[in-house]
TrEMBL record:
Keyword Transmembrane applies: yes
Protein name: RDD family protein
Domain RDD: 9-161
InterPro entries in UniProt: RDD (IPR010432)
TM regions (residue ranges): 12-39, 59-79, 126-148
Length: 168
């Protein structure tokens, strides 16, 4: 029964974290629209490489850093985990594992960005579609692992040596 309760809390935490990330992305979009119109009198044209770098350095990396700091902090929890009374448990107190956990956790998002940008600039060929499909497969794998595994650990938890537990 405890296992089912934590699973439900994990998915609620995921939803709340997704809402925070979405709010960040909407804010980023608004700020960048203002910057583009003030500095360039419109949205500039970006190259393939520039688009890949912009997506990585304005969305994925900041979110990885923020989530790693939150999960590596004293509370060891993101916004969603705090709201749902969950925390990340680190064996041997290696809080730097939060960086590994979050890099792997957001890998599907980055691969999805890369695939879509590649498709927009160079055609949705086998490379773009492979990135997109791997992105989706990893996301589904992460969810299925939480649902199926008795300890509810997904790939980011296994690689970082962490697990999600109820906070006291």
């Amino acid at each position: 029964m405890q296992s089912v309760a934590i699973r439900k809390r994990r998915f609620m935490a995921l939803l709340i974290d997704w809402l925070y990330i979405s709010a960040y992305l909407i804010l980023l979009f608004g700020v960048m629209q203002i910057v583009y119109w003030l500095a360039f009198n419109g949205i500039p044209t970006f190259s393939y490489l520039q688009s890949q770098l912009i997506a990585t350095f304005t969305s994925v990396i900041p979110v990885i850093i923020i989530f790693s700091i939150m999960e590596g902090s004293f509370q060891a929890a993101t916004f969603g985990k705090r709201f749902n009374h969950l925390r990340i448990s680190y064996p041997n107190h290696f809080k730097s594992r939060s960086v590994i956990r979050n890099m792997v956790k957001f890998l599907p998002w980055q691969l999805g960005h890369m695939g879509v940008i590649h498709g927009m600039y160079k055609d949705f060929n086998w490379f773009a579609m492979t990135l997109i499909y791997v992105s989706m497969l990893l996301a589904v794998l992460y969810i299925m692992m939480v649902l199926i595994r008795q300890d509810q650990r997904h790939l980011p938890d296994l690689l970082a040596g962490t697990f999600v537990e109820k906070s006291s």
